[in-house]
Specification:
Blueprint (H helix, E strand, L loop, with lengths): L1 H36 L5 H11 L45 H4 L39 H4 E3 L7 H5 L7 E3 L2 E3 L11 H9 L11 E5 L5 H6 L5 E6 L7 H7 L4 E3 L14 E7 L11 H9 E10 L5 H8 L3 H17 L2 E7 L2 E6 L64 H4 L8 H21 L10 E4 L6 H5 L6 E7 L7 H6 L3 E5 L12 E7 L1 H4 L6 H11 E12 H12 L3 E7 L8 E8 L14
Helix pairs in contact: 1-2
Subcellular location: Endomembrane system; Golgi apparatus membrane; Membrane
Main location: membrane
Family: Belongs to the methyltransferase superfamily.
């Protein structure tokens, strides 16, 4: 009987305990909901209870520089593994544009300067070391004109381009006077000349493409006119030209017009530009001009300055024959006519063409037998796709005055207007209402971000990357002359949204994060990634993606990642082994939401240890 009584008592106590636990859970849930509602006098008490019971929040994270001498928080999570520094020879390592690997590929049509990424077994699993003496770049706009020598210790351009006013070495800094091969008197005067023809001042031209950009002075001086230029140049004998551009705070990527399509959507740019960029525009059946035509929006402008324009006056200085230069210009004019570009003006050594608004306003295009049209059903499917000598079709119109694909508002009105691709139903499953809802959500997210990272909207972070940009909502929410955002749309995304991002007056690029990005190390101040690791789950190694993030992030740069709590927990453990300080916090809607936010700051450290760990 005693045994039976004892069993009954145990069951009673278990039942009571269970009821108490359930009751407390209900109490704290209601209290949390009350706290979030904004009503009642007990909010401060509820907030304190939440702070004490929330195990996902790590100690305060400092976003200050190492010079501020703030005490670093002690991590409460142990790293999964500790990554060692790579040997110092990898300081400026660009995995997919490695010079040694490039030489194994054909030189024809610049194939060897294109992306050639290492196989998995050759990938580095160590941290790329910053050079000894590395310092934070100067704040914008001073960074446009000055770059610390220690960050890019390469003087070759100061000698090679001395008379062209590209860059000068002064003391412990490089100074960029704003000159270029075609504008030794400065980019400002050159742009003034261009703006006398092209509508830059009124916001009609917002996005530009600079092919063969050098140190990107053209793009740098367009920024004060509210024009965002995507500049690209190969990693070649002009060492570090794209690295200089990014150190200056100017958008740029390593790239070349070779055999594969540019990683940009069709009808993206308001203007494209070549200033003595050495691209053989008339070669290969005009394939390079056809690629520019693909990425140029209807009504957009193409600017070509330097040889062969105005060859009759300049042929002696260019050390080429009249016959050679005349043939080259005639070929360019012929291809421009084939593309239905209207030659607007020729000023000195600069020629400006304009792409027609639609095919209805192109008489020669009515007879399609005179031109080879591309048969691709998706003009934005470009990742590692070969260029072909054909013209990319543009959307049909009902009226000769209508803009193919839809008219775009001047900037900044276009930033939050519904992009024509969405308004016209060209992105399946996305309505104007869904787009507006997305905008509203990102404004809310950014408000929460800035409450944790007080520097987010101050201009501290100049070069910003969004690794999975969606419709560009994050970039739009933080848009400011103080910063710019490289909006990356992963090639495996369910929807191709990059075209809509460009229609907002923002810039970006297609990329597959299973491979390295086309940039130098330490070129971004802040990296944002929303849902990226869920997207790439079972596609490639999480560790490889994080190491690539570390490669492109500056010392003391910041990271913001949104994802499922289970994924971010794994990311957090890896990040702690990469010399990152981290803080995992709840979604702004409360702890019951599975999506969390992981904030991180890369610690300041530099190379200088020649006996560092083996690379692999």
């Amino acid at each position: 009987m005693a045994v039976k009584a004892s069993s009954a008592d145990n069951r009673t106590r278990s039942t009571v305990s269970l009821c108490i636990v359930i009751g407390m859970c209900c109490f704290f849930y209601i209290l949390g909901a009350w706290q979030k509602s904004g009503f009642g006098k007990g909010d401060s008490i509820a907030l304190e209870i939440t702070k004490r019971t929330d195990c996902t929040i790590l100690p305060n994270l400092s976003f200050d520089t190492h010079l501020a001498k703030q005490a670093r928080p002690r991590d409460l999570v142990s790293p999964a593994k500790k990554f060692k520094p790579c040997p110092d020879r990898y300081t400026d390592y660009t995995p997919c544009q490695d010079q040694n690997r490039a030489m194994k590929f054909p030189r024809e049509n610049m194939n060897y300067r294109e992306r050639h990424c290492p196989p998995q077994k050759e990938k580095l699993h160590c941290l790329i070391p910053p050079p000894k003496g590395y310092v934070a770049p100067f704040p914008w706009p001073k960074s446009r004109d000055y770059v610390p020598f220690a960050n890019c210790p390469y003087k070759s351009l100061t000698v090679e381009k001395a008379i062209q006013n590209w860059v000068q070495f002064e003391g412990n800094v490089f100074r960029f006077p704003g000159g270029g091969t075609q504008f030794p008197q400065g980019a400002d005067k050159y742009i003034d000349q261009l703006a006398s023809v092209v509508p830059i001042a009124n916001g009609t031209v917002r996005t530009a493409l600079d092919t063969g950009c050098g140190v990107a002075s053209w793009g740098a001086y367009l920024l004060k006119r509210n024009v965002l230029a995507m500049s690209f140049a190969p990693r070649d004998s002009h060492e570090a030209q794209v690295q200089f551009a990014l150190e200056r705070g100017v958008p740029a990527v390593i790239g070349v017009l070779g055999t594969i399509k540019l990683p940009f959507p069709s009808r993206a740019f308001d203007m494209a530009h070549c200033s003595r960029c050495l691209i053989p525009w008339g070669a290969n059946g005009g394939i390079y001009m056809m690629e520019v035509d693909r990425v140029l929006r209807p009504g957009g402008y193409w600017v070509l300055s330097g040889p062969p324009i105005n060859w009759k006056v300049n042929y002696k200085g260019w050390q080429r024959t009249k016959k050679d230069l005349e043939a080259e210009q005639n070929k360019i004019e012929e291809i421009a006519d084939l593309l239905c570009w209207e030659k607007v003006k020729e000023i000195g050594e600069m020629a400006i063409w304009r792409k027609r608004l639609n095919t209805e306003s192109c008489p020669s295009r009515q007879d399609e037998s005179s031109v080879q049209m591309c048969d691709s059903t998706n003009a934005d499917d470009v990742w590692y796709k070969k260029m072909k000598p054909c013209v990319t079709p543009i959307p049909d119109v009902n009226d000769p005055s209508e803009v193919a694909g839809g008219a775009i508002k001047p900037f900044p009105s276009r930033l939050n207007a519904v992009p024509p691709r969405i308004a016209n139903g060209l992105i399946p499953g996305v309505s104007s209402q869904a787009y507006q809802k997305d905008n509203k959500m990102w404004k809310k997210h950014v408000k929460a971000y800035s409450s944790v990272n007080k520097y987010l909207l101050t201009g501290r972070y100049r070069n910003i990357m969004d690794m999975s940009a969606g419709f560009g909502g994050f970039a739009a929410a933080i848009e400011s002359p103080k910063s710019w955002v490289m909006n990356v749309v992963p090639t495996i995304s369910k929807m191709s949204t990059l075209g809509a991002i460009y229609e907002r007056g923002l810039i970006g690029i297609y990329h597959d994060w299973c491979e390295a990005f086309s940039t130098y190390p330490r070129t971004y101040d802040l990296i944002h990634a929303s849902g990226l690791f869920t997207l790439y789950k079972n596609k490639c190694n999480m560790e490889d993606i994080l190491l690539e993030m570390d490669r492109v992030l500056r010392p003391e740069g910041a990271v913001i990642m949104r994802d499922d709590v289970d994924i971010l927990t794994k990311v957090n453990r890896l990040a702690l082994g990469m010399k990152w300080n981290t803080r995992l916090v709840d979604h702004e809607d409360g702890p019951m939401v599975r999506e969390k936010v992981l904030y991180a700051v890369k610690q300041y450290w530099v190379g200088g240890n020649q006996t560092a760990a083996a690379a692999a």
